[in-house]
Amino acid sequence: MKPLIAANWKMNKDIKEADSFIKNFKNHIKNTKDTEIVICAPFTLLSELKRLLNKSNIILGAQNMHFEKEGAFTGEVSASMLKDIGCEYVILGHSERRQYFNETDELINKKIKAALKNNLKPILCIGETLDQRDNNETLKVIERQLTSCLEGIDEVKNVAIAYEPIWAIGTGKTATPSQAEEIHKFIRELLTNVYNENISQKTRIIYGGSMKPDNAKELLSMPNINGGLVGGASLDAKSFGEICGV
User: Fold this and answer.
1) What is the CATH number of the domain that holds 118?
2) What sign does the dihedral 126-127-128-130 (CA atoms) show?
3) Domain containing 220: what range?
4) Each residue of 10-68: pLDDT tens digit?
5) pTM higher than 0.85, yes or no?
6) pLDDT in tens, 180-195
7) Which of 66, 94, 181, 184 is catalytic?
8) 94 has catalytic annotation
9) Pick the catalytic residue: 36, 96, 103, 164?
């Protein structure tokens, strides 16, 4: 299974900064043809990035979308709009969207269906808070989020699942490779039980909790970790390039 390494730039970078990043980043990924590299950028950068990434093996992605095709939804962007501008991936259900914008599993489920209908590949984020982990609720939370967000969806192999322990995002903390592997294995077993072994083995499950150059190799060596959703480290061309080259 080809590893997927996706950058989540969040609300960072203007056009000048994005241009500089791409020029530098291309120099750091000479030997990454066996890795699928995606940059998920703010809406304002997508058109420029499409131009900058032309004739490269770097794929364009977005960080969010609305589930409706069009209409009176001021400030929103549809799946077809993202596809039209050149996106192939879209992050859905990120913990920050859940926390700050009250996104529910049911809403995320609608977005995933709309993305797949428009041939966009969703990166579905699931994960537990520190309180939930301390209360031994991790597996229950993961199962609820996964089954609710994927309800009624058959094209699961086209959905990348990002396990992002919320307690490890932007805190400097990171799940140990064994902790991350435990949850990734649980997710794969869930996919086998809900769907089948074939779908489970074809679905990429990636780690999204503060992956950095110094821990990427060990995390990515785990049997059920098929890549990473990289936040802070993806803002620096050299750091992100090192992760992609692991």
Assistant:
1) 3.20.20.70
2) negative
3) 4-244
4) 999 999 999 999 999 999 887 667 899 999 999 999 999 999 999 899 999 999 999 99
5) yes
6) 999 999 999 999 999 9
7) 94
8) yes
9) 164
